[in-house]
Amino acid sequence: MRLASTDMTDAEWQTRCDLAAMYHICNHLGWTDLINTHMSARVPGEPEHFLINRYGEMFDEVTASSLVKMDLAGNVIGDQARFNTAGFTIHSGVYKARPDANCVLHTHTRAGGGVALMRRGLRPISQDALHVLDDVVYHDYGVPATQEECDALGVSCATGSCVILLNHGLLTLGETIHGAFMRLYMLERACEVELMARSLDEPPVMIEPYIVERAAARMKKLRATPEYGLLEFQGLVRTVDRNGDKYRC
């Protein structure tokens, strides 16, 4: 059931439903940290506004209508609700620096957190890593919820859409929700394999540089398409729908 609002566009409502689905997908995949991570989407046609979760809700409680609408100055638009201040810092910093970004996803998974302990943690050792390696940037840990951190994150994400937040976790951005999701899925997989490799008694086989280079060229083209990640996202939407998740309300 659609949120009762006289001024909401169909495009905003669809984005609300897609972003709410994204929260339920992350819950399904186990990418949660109680109430303490956040995902957002820019409102179509309103580049200064974005949607983010209401602070205090678990991911499986998020609905299209519970999402909070904010501007890039930190003001809540419409119904007033609590939001994660550090989350606002992160997401507004990315949106200000990347006008092409329409979705930002942030997690504190064990695999992502583990690789975030290393300065250059990801290596070309897996097919998963080759999906994102050319687009990975590393961001030094900063003071949460400060303008300094907001600005610094904007600088870091200017050159990549797969960000490893050192001593912290993972962040991806994309022109679409499904594109940002696919980046996060492959980055998370790459981190899982990386940590497995580091637990072995012998060094992993490194992929040859010329293959890494060719894979990077291919992935740049693939990530630039509007279809990147769409089928995977739609499949997971069907999965959470079959699970009985209620988020389109």
UniProtKB/TrEMBL annotation:
It comes from the Bacteria. Residues 17-195 form the Class II aldolase/adducin N-terminal domain. It holds the Pfam family Aldolase_II. Coiled coil: none annotated. Belongs to the aldolase class II family. This is Class II aldolase/adducin family protein. It comes from Paracraurococcus lichenis.
